[in-house]
């Protein structure tokens, strides 16, 4: 029996008109903002002020009108006869989207900043083959959002869940188990993750600033300095460069940590109704439900510092989600090893074990060192000479790149077991991606012509939520496990 609240078409909360108004007004400013800037900076006359005021007034009236019409024309309900969720929208051209409840992948409840001010929530419905933007309810109450999610996700997963005495509030407020990420753990995670990318950007900035400052001082004071003063200047400028690198690095780490703390503030993980609910956010709140049957990849990320303090990040991808898109996959920050193992056992239903480890051959390390450290040093040396940058930067590059190549080789491994496979990869932040063998959708084995004599090749195992891959490994071992995965997948297809 469908809850009466969704058996008939209903509209969003009236407060949603304000959100729709801001959305329309923002689009107008993005499209016509250049025109307003040109008018504003023209000669200051009374006619110009009158025209600018008129344009702004018309834009406000237009945005209010469009927002109200979009609110009136937007409806959603659950058809009890066809067991479909139906969403209708549009002003002039009306569109209707019908989705069978069994095909709905996930329902995400979020609360961006302006929604939080107004006390309303946003609902995104994810279904394979559809765009979340097309299946978004902009403004509903929290109770309505939760009730709708219960009906679309939980009820279809557990038929016994739906009864004549269905009470959404009762199903929402009884988590079986939960844990909360403390602010201290979040700070530790924020200050020790994802800043390797900032280092590369800052190195580029330092090179650029050095070139510009060097040109300026060379033109201004070269003739005024004697040899001794010139040597002191060069020494002082090098000290400034080192200080600038340290300052930029510290600033990048602080900004990155602050961004993560704000984004994942008050993270809570709750077990309820055979699923996991994850919620977080300070200014922009987000709440997602993870169904263990739909989990495709369980990705844990940890670096050396985080390993010492027993902390790391988790990412869970479900069917149809992109492992590289943080807006689709679910992030659980600052988990310790115990919490990670608890979640992994819950999602996969058993202990994750492996029987064989596949490593890349040493030839891979030698070839990459030749490319990046040796050949790369020649290119970088030419650039440094062209821009008249001190030669010690070349030594720094060679050592730095050699360390990165070595770390990537050491951390690259592939694990196979009876039920699971895992890819370990990374340089500083090491990712471990675990997937079920039964979730395999496609396998790709490749081998370059120069790899045939050495008996090495590459493999890519694709699931509906990402891939597991490794290159330059022994082909005999890879083929053995590829055949096993294909066999297990075929058995599963025959049984279903």
Automatic annotation (TrEMBL):
UniProt-listed InterPro entries: YdbS-like_PH (IPR005182)
Keyword ATP-binding: no
UniProt KW keywords: Membrane, Transmembrane, Transmembrane helix
Transmembrane segments: 15-41, 47-69, 189-210, 233-258, 369-387, 393-416
Domain YdbS-like PH: 71-150, 264-343, 424-467
Keyword Membrane: yes
Protein name: YdbS-like PH domain-containing protein
Organism: Chryseobacterium lacus
